[in-house]
TrEMBL record:
PROSITE patterns: 4FE4S_FER_1 (PS00198), 4FE4S_FER_2 (PS51379)
Protein name: Cytochrome c oxidase cbb3 type accessory protein FixG
Gene Ontology CC terms: plasma membrane
Gene3D superfamilies linked to this entry: Immunoglobulins
InterPro entries referenced in this protein's UniProt entry, alphabetically: 4Fe4S_Fe-S-bd, 4Fe4S_Fe_S_CS, Cyt_c_oxidase_cbb3_FixG, Electron_Trans/Redox, FixG_C, Ig-like_fold
Residue spans crossing the bilayer: 67-85, 119-140, 193-211, 227-247, 373-391
Signal peptide: none
Superkingdom to which the source organism belongs: Bacteria
Region (Disordered): 15-35
Domain (4Fe-4S ferredoxin-type): residue spans on this chain: 288-317
Entry's Gene Ontology molecular function annotations: 4 iron, 4 sulfur cluster binding; metal ion binding
Xref: Pfam families: Fer4_18, Fer4_5, FixG_C
PANTHER family: FERREDOXIN-TYPE PROTEIN NAPH
Amino acid sequence: MTDTATGLELLARQATGQAGPAASGAGNPHGDEGERYTAVNSEKNRPLYESRVKVYPKLVHGTFRKLKWLVMAVTLTIYYVTPWLRWDRGPGLPDQAVLLDFPARRFYFFFLEIWPQEFYYVTGLLILAALGLFLVTSVAGRVWCGYACPQTVWTDLFLHVERFFEGERAARIRLDKSPWTAAKLARKTGKHLSWILISLATGGAWVFYFADAPTLAGDLTTFDAPAIAYLFIGLFALTTYTLGGLAREQVCIYMCPWPRIQGAMFDEESLLVSYKEDRGEKRGPHKKGTSWEGRGDCIDCGQCVAACPMGIDIRDGMQLECIQCALCIDACDEIMDKVERPRGLIAYDTLRNQQRRSAGETPRLNIVRPRTILYTLILGLVAAIMLVALVNRSTLELSVLRDRNPLFVTLSDGSIRNGYEVKIVNKEHSERTFGISVEGVEGAVLTRPALTGDNGPLLVVGPDKLGTARFFVSLPGDRASKLNGEAEMNFIVTDLENGKTVARATTFRGPSK
């Protein structure tokens, strides 16, 4: 029992009036006051922060370890290769498949092009990702954390490099405890240099998402790239090196909020990596050839603990630190094969199935339940809204800004004139010619200023560009006097190539009666 636990127990005993050897004064010259002093003083002497105990995960072999290798290979390939994929969008446009083009204020994702005013698509994708995570977590726990989370992937990669230079678990422990020698220095140097190279590659790949990858790569090697590129490569390299190589499991335990949130996603039917206590206990060492009667299948070998990258004992039950990587399952199955007992002492299991086995019922998998149905329905609804918005996405947008100062101008012939700034967004990958007209106010005449009126009521907008033009709308004085100060009016823009039209409401202002 720890000092804190002892102190709390003594305080509880004192509060409830329970007597013990110390409480009665036996062996304690100060009696009750001495006991209380000891408990409080023990709590004061407890350090606020506990030193980290380094975790040395053992390499295991099995189904889940192979699955983690596969997920690591796929995710790292996607991350490093994606900026180099090409996508033909036509002349004058970037051909990088995935590009965050900040100078042009565009986000290119294969066939999809997102403008600043369409950022709701990104919001929708984030909502879909969150709902998908909720659904997967309610069904199978923190499988995202155990397999596909970037922190998990890069930590796993760094651990593999560490094993290459320093050996398996026992060898790494001995190396860290041994005095510094030339051999130890060489191993540590090789490991950290490899980590730095991986970190630089990670930071380098990230900046390629924000500029043309081949061009930026050439500029980086010749030191002609912008200073901001080197800054962010260094920043992301430092972050990767620190989190993946040095902090490791501390990120999941102390920095990531998801372990605290996941409790709201679980229920008694969620599949979680679990130790089957009803089968494993009473645990203890076992010699080959001896009977298994009167004991459990767990031989207390500790291999599940040695394999855990978080350094926890799955036999203690569900814990905040567990990322559900299932490596303890592979470690335990190896031992069960050696002692000739059935696999699955540690396996994906549900709390309800444990209760069913205790009651003599048959375990079963229950994925369809209110929680998962609700997540699925919301996920489907958001996906449907996103799909409808994408299918009906317009390639032509129009905005009209009426002059505020002055509101109107009275011309020499008595007519009233308003000024407007018309902006047309051409999302097509080819040049377009647009016709502009007005309707809603009888007798209104649309003109362009003399200096910009070469095309009259026509506006030519380049591919994937924003076109801006200034227009005047004039109305004879006798008609303007009937408006009583204001009238509703529409600007109509027509794509002369395909006939597509867009209307935008505005107002025409004149003198009030």
